[in-house]
């Protein structure tokens, strides 16, 4: 492969990227050696190595240090990442072989044309940054190729379904069987929560989407909140919500938290949610203000029928650091700087459903950084939410798979749905009703930003001249029902969405419960 001969350029970005990936690779190898072939470790390693190549190639391109022959890498590397994140490992492995071969030719060209101290053997000067890239990109590609081969073998030996570890599949299947044997408790996605068979800690039978199977505090003790104050943060008073969460963190099986009466709780500090916790606001109207709710390194959480307002410059709910199996349902949030939910830093299996959001700038950020390739494990369902008069990020996704279905969008100011960094967004049977901006995505006629996400529109209803530019540069996107076994979501026709969502989204209390039940 020929290399453009041009001015010497610093390679600091390349060196820093290589150092980071070498450190990550060392610990990854150790993890594989100690624990055996672990799927998530292998997946993270492959994507991290490919993302380093992608970033460093972009640096060289911006510096004008590669010629037209190298431009095929511009398409090949994102294509491999697309196939890999779509679980098309065999195709990714085949293209990785081509990438290794191409980089080998590039590296050979460099080493053939230089001697010691970069002396010229061919009469042409090769920039140091190009030499560094060819050497380290080849190492990264070989490593990714090897780990992809290992992952293919691992998948053959360790069949998993719906991303559920083998040890947890029995619990999931039992939960599904119980639901199927109780047809009156059909998880319709919106009204099941108010049926007799879902009363109390039977609510989890209604969970849908990627959070299906969540139990929250159903196996723990009931805790009834009787006080609305939050005066003693370090030593919470018994009966307060903060004390209830402290109890949930210590109690075997967690806790199912309810409220004795309607109340407004003004938090003095962030409220940290423990694993195996349900905060159930049905039957009353509970408003939380002041500070956000935080989920860090936790699992199996249900937040249901709450109003979260005025949390300052923060998100209403912040899910991060590998949290998983979280169901956020029937929440109301408005007039906030950021929005309802962020899901970041390797968190996954989250469903955000039946929520009402208005007058937000940023609404839902799913994946916070282009560099956080760990978010490739993220799976989020955005279902039957009402986005009213907001700016953007409804949601905005990076790296992971986001299923956006049966939502009602009215009057977005910048864009409704967006993505970066190889995100997979499947938009299905949503209703888009523009007032100011017609285009659903951030795309415009001179769009030159990140084209690596895949955004697919399936049977969406576009009103009043709305347009939806699909991002399909690196291939198609399959529905979650095709990609994930046992994934289930009761998606309805767009003809029913507006009435269903406007009657049922957000906190349900008093007459609104009746209106939701009667709404079609």
UniProtKB/TrEMBL annotation:
Q: What class of enzyme is it?
A: lyase
Name the domain of life this protein comes from. Answer: Eukaryota
Under SMART domains, the record lists:
Amb_all (SM00656)
- Positions of the Pectate lyase domain: 262-438
So which residues are the signal peptide here? Answer: none
Protein's UniProt keywords contain Calcium: yes
This enzyme's EC code(s):
4.2.2.2
Keywords of the record, alphabetical order, are:
Calcium, Lyase, Membrane, Metal-binding, Signal, Transmembrane, Transmembrane helix
InterPro entries reported in the protein's UniProt record: AmbAllergen, Pec_lyase, Pectin_lyas_fold, Pectin_lyase_fold/virulence, PEL
Q: Which reaction does it catalyse?
A: Eliminative cleavage of (1->4)-alpha-D-galacturonan to give oligosaccharides with 4-deoxy-alpha-D-galact-4-enuronosyl groups at their non-reducing ends
- One MF term in GO for this entry? metal ion binding
Task: Tell me which cofactor or cofactors this protein depends on.
Answer: Ca(2+)
TM region(s), chain numbering: 12-28
UniProt lists the family membership as follows: Belongs to the polysaccharide lyase 1 family.
Tell me what this protein is called: Pectate lyase
